[in-house]
Amino acid sequence: MTLELSVDRGSPVPLYFQLSQQLEAAIEHGTLTPGSLLGNEIELAARLGLSRPTVRQAIQSLVDKGLLVRRRGVGTQVVHSQVKRPLELSSLYDDLEAAGQRPATKVLVNTVVSATAEIAAALGVAEGSDVHQVERLRLAHGEPMAYLCNYLPPALLDLDTAQLEATGLYRMMRAAGITLHSARQSIGARAATSEEAERLAEEAGAPLLTMQRVTFDDTGRAVEYGTHTYRPTRYSFEFQLLVRP
Amino acid sequence: MTLELSVDRGSPVPLYFQLSQQLEAAIEHGTLTPGSLLGNEIELAARLGLSRPTVRQAIQSLVDKGLLVRRRGVGTQVVHSQVKRPLELSSLYDDLEAAGQRPATKVLVNTVVSATAEIAAALGVAEGSDVHQVERLRLAHGEPMAYLCNYLPPALLDLDTAQLEATGLYRMMRAAGITLHSARQSIGARAATSEEAERLAEEAGAPLLTMQRVTFDDTGRAVEYGTHTYRPTRYSFEFQLLVRP
DNA sequence: TCAATGCGTATGTCCGGACAATCTGACTAC
DNA sequence: GTAGTCAGATTGTCCGGACATACGCATTGA
Fold first, then answer.
1. What whole-number distance in Å separates Cα of residue A238 and Cα of residue A235?
2. Which end of chain B, N or C, is less surrounded by CB atoms within 10 Å?
3. If we measure between CA atoms, which residue out of B204, B216, B110, B224 comes closest to residue B164?
């Protein structure tokens, strides 16, 4: 079979990116079957009228994504297993939306509080200084699913309650021009207190899935600290991860 | 301050790798302070007697690791935040060892069983075919910490009980020439059954942290399926993750 | 005073070529 | 028949250069 590949030099989209997208689409679509060889880089470059470094850059990006595997002396082949996505820094809202559910959000608290020692340490601000606090309840199919408590540095974002209910916090941050860079997460479990149980329509002592996260932008500022509790019967963390070579 | 950088052209270690390692060490050591500019690539290349693509390759690898941030028109600077490691496919054994603890392992079961539908689906083998089963109890400071149940395809590995107690499963796989590539994970929580509770010295109904994982090698074969339960008072999943640009 | 413009600087993209390292498979020698 | 050897194929590394693009800042203009 011959793979239809072409690049548009008039497009502002980088050539290597055009190529990697077409290859990824072909893998996704099944045109490039798992295990099949991709054909050597030099010939592929010649066929497309590109240079080898450009082709290599395209292939490399897919290798980084885990879709391709290179073998010296053999060639580049499509990975057999079904790689979906290698763990992104995704918000619960996006996760649910991607799963086809229509998540609902109920903002319980949207205010400014004085930072406790824990919050101050996480966000890197002075203890006692003002921080935004947002408490939300995330529902799916009318059932409570997770209780989210977040703290943000002051003057970072305009936290409109209506907007918080219509979209996710991360989406609002990105829209405000904040470049999310990395996050430090901790996932655990514990028994629900009576207060937590009531919020999530569980019973006191029921197991809860917990997640704490501090998110940093590309300048190294902490832009968000969150403590979340999930109902384990309704939610679990699913992700694919790659081995760093 | 002047950063000491040099490369050895006689070494079989790639030049870009030598450079990236030195830069990483300088960041780790604090010689390159967070937020500081790295100096433009062209001059850096000239100073080291390297070409710009080589220098770029070194820098790019650190950008991928989350240690550096590039800004067009500005330069490349060291990320402020404390990036430790961006979530590896690590075994519990390695995690504990890295944390300074000396993990102990007790192999409870090491046998061959007939694959149930669940196991067969995860490993991609025929239902009812033979698979290895390993059940282990992981202890730290004499206290049970996690209960690990793993299934492996037949004839993949020689599962020596003594070796399983002395090291981790992943380390044994790597030593056997298996190239780990990716894994699909699911982390959740549930209440302990009385059987599970007894194994982990908890009470029935106590919250447990659960993890399921299927690991694939670079040919796409499933090489391991594991169902783990952790005591949440003793263990939680901590990791750093990067945002895919 | 404030906004628009222009310029320098640094990274982003792309090219064409060269040699080295490694894997596969076929051939050869014992 | 088996083991060692060699050649072809393919990716890995590296070079030197060219132009495009975006950011920050100083200058200019209203």
1. 9
2. N
3. B110
CA nearest B235 in A: which residue? Answer: A188
| Residue B219 burial class via C-beta count within 10 angstroms: exposed 0-12, middle 13-18, buried 19 and up | middle
Q: What is the pLDDT of residue A85?
A: 59
| CB within 8 Å: A220 and B81 | yes
Distance of CA A79 to the CA centre of its chain: 22
B51: left (phi over 0), alpha (psi -120 to 50) or beta: beta
Which residue type is seen at A153?
A: P
Pairing of strands A237-242, B222-230: unpaired
Nearest to A120 by CA among A110, A130, A111, A112: A130
- How many angstroms separate the CA atoms of B64 and A60, rounded? 12
Residue nearest D23, CA–C1′ metric: B73
Residue nearest to nucleotide D21 (CA to C1'): B72
Torsional sign, CA A160, A165, A170, A174? negative
pTM above 0.90, yes or no: no
Q: Which of B79, B189, B241 faces A232 most closely, judged by CB atoms? A: B189
- Tell me the C-alpha distance between A242 and B184, whole Å: 9
Tokens representing A9 are 């030099």
- The tens digit of pLDDT for each residue in A209-226 reads 999 999 988 877 888 999
Q: Where are the domains of chain A?
A: 15-78, 83-238
- Give the residue ranges of chain A where pLDDT is below 50: 1
Chain position carrying tokens 């606090």: A133
CATH of region A83-238? 3.40.1410.10
- Other C-beta atoms closer than 10 Å to the C-beta of A57 total 17
As ranges, strand C nucleotides with an atom below 7 A of a protein CB are 8-18, 21-24
DSSP string over B66-133: TSEEEETTTEEEE-SS----------HHHHHHHTT---EEEEEEEEEEEPPHHHHHHHT--TT-EEEE
Given the candidates 2.40.50.140, 1.10.10.10, 1.10.8.420, 3.40.630.10, the CATH classification of the domain at A15-78 is 1.10.10.10
Q: Is the Cβ pair A183, B241 closer than 8 Å? A: yes
